Amino acid sequence: MDSAANLFSTGTLSQILVGLSRTTILFIVSSGMSLILGVLRIPNVAHGSLYMIGAFAAWSVIQLLGGGLFGFLAAMLVAPMIVAAVGFVLERGFFSYLYEREHLMLLLLTFSFALILGDLVKIVWGPEYRSVTVPAFFQGSAEIFGLPLPWYNLFLLVIGPCIAVFLWLVINRTNLGKIARAAAVDGEMVGAVGINTGWIFAFTFVLGSFLAGLGGALIAPMVNISLGMDHSLIMETFLIVIIGGLGNMWGALLGSLIFGLTQSLGILVWPQFGIAFPYLAVVAVLVVRPRGLLRSTW
Amino acid sequence: MRRSAAPLLVLLLLATFLALPQFLPRFHTYVAAIVLLTALLATSLNLAIGYTGLYQFGHAVFYGIGAYGTALTLTRSGMPAPVAFLVGPLAAAALSLAMGLICIRLSKLYFGMLQISLGSLVWAVVYRWYSFTGGDDGIHGIPLPDAIASPKGSYYFTFAVTALCVFAMYRIVRSPFGKVIQGIRDNPVRAAAIGVDVRLHQLASLVIAGFFGGVAGSLFVVVENSVFPDMMFWTFSLEVLIMCLLGGMYTFFGPLVGASVIVLLRVFASVHTQYWGLILGTTLTLVIIFLPDGVLGLFVRRSLPKEDPGA
Predict the structure, then answer these.
(1) Rounded alpha-carbon distances, angstroms, from residue A14 to A207, A223, A275
(2) Domain harbouring A177, CATH code
(3) Do B116 and A238 touch (CB under 8 A)?
(4) Is A42 part of a structural domain of the chain?
(5) Residue A106 lies in a domain
(6) Cβ distance B137 to B127 under 8 Å?
(7) By the 8 A CB rule, do A292 and A244 touch?
(8) Which of B109, B118, B292 sits opposite A43 (nearest CB)?
(9) Would you say A141 and A73 are in contact if contact means Cβ atoms under 8 Å apart?
(10) Of A79, A49, A23, A12, nearest in space to A232 by CA
(11) Domain containing A140: what range?
(12) Is A65 on the interface with B (CB under 8 A)?
């Protein structure tokens, strides 16, 4: 029962901070998925692959430009843009022709692209593990409440809210965002007033892909970049958008918080099956609120 | 005319499968057995997705639990083998009921997404529980009764069970219960309005589908002699879904065709290339764009334009 006592120790606090930085990644990726789900109604299984491409592309950019601060920050910008380009091709080339189909078909179509992209990553980058080191600028730790927290985690904790504010501004304060929200409610009506919904959809998909790529690029220094890193993430992202309410941006934030924190605290309580705790939290949430915590756009 | 031809076709197919091991080499007999049990798996999924209209996205989990239930009973308890072959499917049915109770309140896509995610929790637990399930190594060298331990024995056992289960499912979809679940698929509101307990029928269909998925998993133990966690990974769930789609989701025998095609494709692809995902993904994309009703669905529609293909 010493694990229960641990819950109130300093270990808990540092675990919470680690959990929060993981939450940032989850939020960035799942907000992208939520955006695509909300506006385009595509349960994009290939979202995880886009995240994986982001991580591999970040590795390549850093190989090209060196591991200094400049190379690193450039990678954080260029890798998501590469992923956004991939997203653009996917949306304009394939998905846009099938919006009228059932969700089942769309889900399977995105799954087929998850398979194809997975193998393309294998062809382009090879099956080996890749790793990225944090640039010297971010090495070392800060002291938070007397606890060491790596600078990079702190950096993530700052990035997360910035992304949230940025997305909020794009969605609520720009014309494009307003049209996208309207299209989420009634795409046909938006088309009827003379707006080219096709390009709104493309923009949304590209923005969502950018976020997936950004999540992948940001997590690159923290994990082994490997094939299959998309597989577990996509399920977590699914759960996050479900408990948050499909298509709701703040729901994605709330869901990521619940997911990241229960995961990091769960590992403290029961190391072997810590992975199960977020799922239990999800079941608990859905028993109380079957349609997610916040209002879904569906 | 086709009505009288159908039973003949089925008999011919049964006779072919019965004769196969007599002249096929050992490896191909094994492949044929995998085709059979995968066909059973796909048909059981189709019960939930094609006939009840539930987005069962995590079906491989029931397959895996069926296999693990049987394998663990055979290796860890002293129970006789027939009990083990019941434990697997029953465990799958029980899990199906539990997951169904959680997911059933959600509509369509929500249901599917939650189910596939909960399924990946089951996978994660099996994957990490080294002391009980063997973790990512799985369980190998499972002791089987002598009668079904040989390649031919396991093939005939698989064949008999598959034929029996497919026949049972055929009867189920033709029964009044089958008509009710198809009614729910086509219009749940109307079904509820005429007094059908929609949730109860959906749950029953999920449990039946889970049970037969578990049977397929038990057969996997017989054929493969081992189990591993990847057989219940979510990508495999969607692969089974692809089999249904490829063959034709609103036909009874479509999933059998789809399963055979995918399994054979996989076997031959694995000889020549390591890029199975590329092949499967491309195939699926082409099917979705050009053959949304599946191979059999297209055939049924072409040959019988007036008959309801879901019947």
Answers:
(1) 33, 19, 18
(2) 1.10.3470
(3) yes
(4) yes
(5) yes
(6) no
(7) yes
(8) B109
(9) no
(10) A49
(11) 2-288
(12) no
- Using CA atoms, how far apart are residues A1 and A8, in angstroms rounded to an integer? 13
Residues of A in contact with B55 (CB under 8 A): 103-104
Q: Which residues of chain B have pLDDT under 50?
A: 1-2, 304-311
Q: Cβ separation of B278 and A119 shorter than 8 Å?
A: yes
Per-residue pLDDT tens over the stretch B270-306: 888 888 888 889 988 888 888 777 676 666 655 544 4
- Residue B175 to chain A, least CA–CA distance (Å): 27
Judge: B234–A103 Cβ closer than 8 Å, yes or no: no
Q: How far apart are CA B59 and CA B216, in angstroms?
A: 11
pLDDT digits (tens, 9 = 90+) for B39-64: 999 999 999 988 998 888 889 999 99
With CB atoms and an 8 Å threshold, state whether A112 touches B233.
Answer: no
This prediction's pTM: 0.85
Q: B284–A231: do the CB atoms touch at under 8 Å?
A: no
A198/A209 Cα distance (integer angstroms): 16
Q: What is the pLDDT of residues A96-129, one digit of tens each?
A: 888 777 778 888 889 999 999 999 999 999 888 8
| Alpha-carbon dihedral sign for residues B73, B75, B79, B83 | positive
- Decide if A289 touches B, using CB distance below 8 A: no
**Are A111 and B238 a contacting pair at CB < 8 A?**
yes
Q: How do strand A147-150 and strand A141-144 relate by DSSP bridges?
A: antiparallel
Q: Evaluate whether residue A293 is within a structural domain.
A: no
* Distance between A8 CA and the closest CA of chain B, angstroms: 27
Q: Name the domain count of chain A.
A: 1
> Cβ separation of B275 and A122 shorter than 8 Å?
yes
Partner residue facing B102 (CB), from A123, A239, A283: A283
Domain ranges of chain B: 2-233
